Amino acid sequence: MMPYYLLKMIICLIVFTVCPFLLGENVVILTKFNINSKVIALLYRYVMGWVLELALFQVFAVPFILFKTHFTYLLIVWVLFLVVLMLSGVFFCFKNLKKNADILELKTSERVNKIEKIELIVSMCIMVGVIGFQLFQYGVKMHTDLDDSRFVANTIEAVDNDTMFLRSPATGEYVGTWTGEQEKDVTSPWMLMYAALAKITGLSAATIVHTVMPVILLLLSYFTLWMVGDELTEHNLQHTVYFTIFSALLYMVFSGSTYTRGVFMLTRIWQGKAAVAAFFIPLVFYFFVRHFRQEENVIYRTYLELMIINFALCLTTGVGLITAAVLTGGYGIWSAIAGKRIKNLFYSWSCELPIILYGCIQIIIKGGI
User: Fold this and answer.
1) Which one-letter DSSP state was computed for residue 296?
2) DSSP letters along 19-72, please?
3) Using CA atoms, how far apart are residues 196 and 91, in angstroms rounded to an integer?
4) Range with the lowest mean pLDDT among 144-158, 224-238, 269-283, 327-341?
5) Are 141 and 134 in contact (CB under 8 A)?
6) CA atoms 338, 39, 33, 248: torsion sign
7) More confidently predicted of 347 and 88
């Protein structure tokens, strides 16, 4: 019989690595994503796989919370959809087996001399060292914030009591409805996502929140920054490495206040608003840059990528909802004017639908209507 700890390791491996890649394959097929860089192709699948996973959780979580059902029902529906999408990801992987095999080769056609090769190796070692140090801090240590008792209490409530935002995070007493700041969590149930991962993997809620997911989110942030750097440097590998190193070092000293992006990223990335600053804003920026540069090849299906990102942004916090609205609306206007295509405005603003939906629900909950 397989030891329990080994079974948990296998489950964690599937949940945190295999599942995002397979889900990301669906996004590639859906949006017809086509990038020649093999490294970017791999990173994109992993990043967008996680985003799709979060977006689906947002879609299912809000109705279940509004109807005050058991957390287990939400978990079952979410997992079933993930399994279906994973199977479809496997199908598409085998269907495009030759293309995916070429991606995994990760060979470069660029010729570099010995000095440039040494420079690249040294710079990549520095990059791995800096980012590895930051991952070590999250993986071995943990940071508790003043809001920690409320956030983690909501996660533990779902895991232990099978309810969602119906208990007081201060006393654990059953209230039966959403009160205080928990009202805004109804449309942005970020902490419930951690509870779902804790249930699936068998790890404790506190371990997921403070150790596992900070490492994952930090990796996703740097994967996204790498993709941003690749676009800004016009696919120059050496310059992309420098861009990533500079960003990583900048965050380590960029702590003039507790609300800077560096502090959010390196001390409490597990919070929804910190994930917005560290991960989602760079991801939206990457979409905008890549999308605008490929304007002549863009079709309406590529905007589905932005729609998925906006759903995931709504999951994080009210800040994520507002950020998604501003960025998406602003890009729609800018791309319509700069690209001289009025249809871009329609496509971009269509991606505001989840923001409008959850915004209206939040207004109703708070008694604004």
Assistant:
1) G
2) HHHHHHHHHHHHHT---S-HHHHHHHHHHHHHHHHHHHHHHHHHHHHHTT--HH
3) 26
4) 144-158
5) no
6) negative
7) 88
